[in-house]
Each structure stands twice: as C-alpha cells, then as structure tokens.
Amino acid sequence: xxxxxMDGGRLLFLVMWLxxxxxxxxxxxxxxxxxxxxxxxxxxxxxxxSIPTEIPVRSQRIFLQSNKLTVVRxxxxxxxxxxxxxxxxxxNISYIEAGAFYGLEKLEELDIGDNxxxxxxxxxAFRGLTKLHTLHLHRCGLSELPVGVFRGMFSLQYLYLQxxxxxxxxxxxxxDLANLTYLYLHNNKIKIVTDNMFRGLINLDRLLLHQxxxxxxxxxxxxxxxxxxxxxxFFNNLTVLTGETMDPLVSLQYLRLNGNQWICDCRARTLxxxxxxxxxxxxxxxxxxxxxLAGKDLIRLKSEDLEGCVEMPQIQxxxxxxxxxxxxxxxxxxxxxxxxxxxxxxxxxxxxILSGKSRQITNNPLKEKENMSKTKYKEPERTKNETQHKxxxxxxxxxxxxxxxxxxxxxxxxxxxxxxxxxxxxxxxKCSKKPKSDTHCIKGQGSTLQVLRFLFIPIxxxxxxxx
Length: 467
Known about the structure:
alpha/beta, 12-stranded mixed beta sheet, two-stranded parallel ribbon, 10 helices, 18 strands, 26% helix, receptor, LRR_dom_sf, cell membrane
C-alpha cells in the first residue's frame, strides 16, 4: 500500500514537471532563443507591434530592437527577474508605463534610443534600477528630463542623451550619479550651462556638449568636474568663457572650443591666462571681434592685443539665434560712412549699426531702399571718372558743370564769402565732448543743406543769364 502511494506521488510529480517545462523553456513566435553564453531571446527585425508575452522567465538578455513596438507596459518584463540586457532601440515607442522596469534589479544595460516619438519620460520610469550601468536615451525627441528621473541610479556609468531637443536641464539632475564617467549631451538645444547642472558628477571623465546653443557658462558650472579629461563645447554660441570657470578642471586633457563667436578683448583676458597654465590639447579659438583680430587664434595673441573692450551694446540679442552656426558676427562696419560722426549717434543708433540693420538718413524715400541694400556689402573703391560722374547726380543735377564754369566769372570776394560759410557749416558736423543725439545731428545737416540751397539758387540764375 505504501509503495503504491509513493509510485502515485512520483507519477503526479512527473506529470506536473512535464506541464511546466514547455511554459518555462518555450520561445515566443518569430523569436530565436538560445542558452549559451547566456539565456537569450532574440526578436529583432520581426515587425512586432507588441512585446511577446511568452518570454522565458530565466532569460538574461532580450533583443527587441528594430521592430514597431509602441508601448512598454508594466507587465511586459515583470517576470524576468534575471534580466541583465534589454534592447528596445529603433522602435515607435511613445509611452512607457510607470513601473515598466520595476523588479529588474539585475538589469545592467537598457537601450531605448532612437524612438523619436518618446517625447516625455515618467519621473519614476527607472526607479529601482540600482545595478544599471548603461542607459541609452538618444534620438528620442526629448525636450526635457523630469526632476528626479535618475534618482537612485548609483551604478550608472554611461548616459547617452545626444540628438534630442533638450532645452535645459534642471539643477541636480545628475546628483545621484557619482559613478557616471561618460555623459553625451551633444546636438541638443541647451542655451545656458548653470552652476548646479552637473553637480554630483565627481567621477565624470567625458562631457560632450558640442552642437548645442550655449551662449553662457555660469562661473561654478564645472566645480565638481575635477576628474574630467575631455570637454567638447565646439559649435555653440559662446562669446566669453572665464578662466575662473575653467579652473576646477584640473585633470582636463582634451578641450574643443572651436566654432564659437569669441570676443577677443579684455573680456578674454582670464581665459587667455588660463590657457598659459593648461597643458592639454586644445582646438583653436578663432576671434570674431574686434575686426583687426578676426580669424586669429585667441591662445596665440599677445597680452597687449587684449587691452580695452569693444563696445557692443546689443550684439547678443542679434547674434544668438537658433541658426547661429556660421561662427561670424554681423558686420560692425558703419553703414553710414562718414556722413554723420559716430559720436553723434545715440545708443540706439550705435546698436543698430552693430546689428547691421541701421536706417539710412535721407530725404528721398525712393533712394532709401537703395541705400539700405548698399549697406549689406562693402562698396569697392571708385575710380576718378566714376566719382566725377556721381557728382552730376547730386541735389543740383546736371547744372553742376555749368556752375563750375560760372563760378570762374564771379568776383573773388564773393567766392571767399562762400568758402567761409561752407567752413563754418563743416565745423557744425564735428562732435563736442558730449555726444549729441541723432536728432540733433540730423537737424544740423538739414540747416547746412538749407544754407547751401539759398547760396546756390542765385548762382544758378546768374549762370543762366550769362549763358
């Protein structure tokens, strides 16, 4: 009797074992499963619209890249507690449910990059991934990262955030990532690097910030980056970077700052001094302003080249647009020429000259459009004949040649009086120590034209009568 019961128990156990084996070792349709070197489920490039539900629980690696997945649900991998590698890149994922990776305490590498419709991420999406060392979030269309999204990820070493639309990063976003060594942030839209943006990254080795829109790096932005070896900030909109900002980077070996819009005057002095102490490799820093230093390398300038500061009241407002990748400043050449002395212009007009959008002062509305187009290009030097021909197009028209001949017949006393009155009017164009307003200068010119008009009208009549 006892033996019958034992045999029955063994038979029951065998039946139960046979029923369980197909469930645990079964492989999802359209997937390939293998156990060496580690239990793996490979389902890439199969046109899948949803994550298979029959994934073996003992799987350590799951490859689901290059499919058409749209959602990662909280139950998708809930039974895969041994999972170490999960690839979900190059899909159409637009939503990751809260807790989608909950329980994956052994996960080391997670790649959800190249999902361009994944615009937002839940603040708790990666909660519990304490063993994760590599996270791919590149090309996901992300415009921001929620506060606390990387909280508790103490093992993370590689973070890929490039090729997104990130405009700014919250302070202390990376505070828990003390072991992070590589941070890729290039090709985003970041404008300002704040003091606390990289706080906590005490072991960071490589920081890639190139091809953003950075216009300013705050003074304490690199305070915690004492182990940083590579810093890429090329092709941004930087004009000034202080030596004090760079001082904490004591381990820096590779620095790339080319493709920016450097102002090489007294504001570059501290950075120039810092480069004298820097022993690593650096790109050239091509000067854009002032004009006489344009194209020269800031690092190779002499100390006397950096004396004084260029006055550029509104250069930043016109410069740092989303398309400012050419590395060139707008022209600082005065489009008004010498018609009005520069010191007679008010602040608004000076800034408009710098921005290349200044208005031409003219009494002829038909000429105004022509004059504005001419300011965009540097006019070539005219020959003597061209200059003489241009004089015939002046306010007196073709009568200027007749006047020249008729002036020879006038009395010397009259000519002397004419010259003295012209000289006195020229003196009015000179600037006093106190700059005059734009309106004052225009009025001065208007009065000069009126005096000349009254002087020349009688001459015209005299010349006509003589002829």
